[in-house]
Amino acid sequence: MSDNNNQNKTPKKLNIQLDEDVAQGKYSNLAIINHSATEFVLDFVNVMPGTPKSSVQSRIIMSPMHTKRLLRALKDNIDKYERANGSIDEKDPHHNIPLNFGPTGQA
């Protein structure tokens, strides 16, 4: 085997920088998802009770392939979380957010 073949089998490390302002994160209790044939648009919103207007905290635009990978990664992490902490209750009487607003299906 040549050195070139050995280099291809060595996993490459990815250097990811996390800036301080991004590391603080944004809280979101609503995600609005739209899509076109070529991309998915995920808008993360913080809806506060008694506030008539809410704004998008962050918008992420992803390819369909990466969106599907995100879906799998989220499912895997939720499964691990529930094994360690018990089932996540999806019924929250404090959050009655209507889901029939904004554009649907197309970005």
What do you see in this structure?
The chain is an alpha+beta fold and 107 residues long. It has a domain of 61 residues. Strands 1-2-3 form a 3-stranded antiparallel beta sheet.
Q: Main traits of this protein?
A:
107 residues; three-stranded antiparallel sheet; alpha+beta; extended; 18% strand
The span between the termini is 49 Å
Overall average pLDDT:
85
Question: What gyration radius follows from the Cα positions, in whole Å?
Answer: 19 Å
Q: Record the strand order, biggest sheet.
A: 1-2-3
Helix and strand run: HHEEEH
Alpha-beta classification:
alpha+beta
SS elements, strand count: 3
Write the layout of secondary structure elements.
Layout: H1 3-9, H2 20-23, E1 30-35, E2 40-45, E3 56-62, H3 64-85
Antiparallel strand pairs: 1-2, 2-3
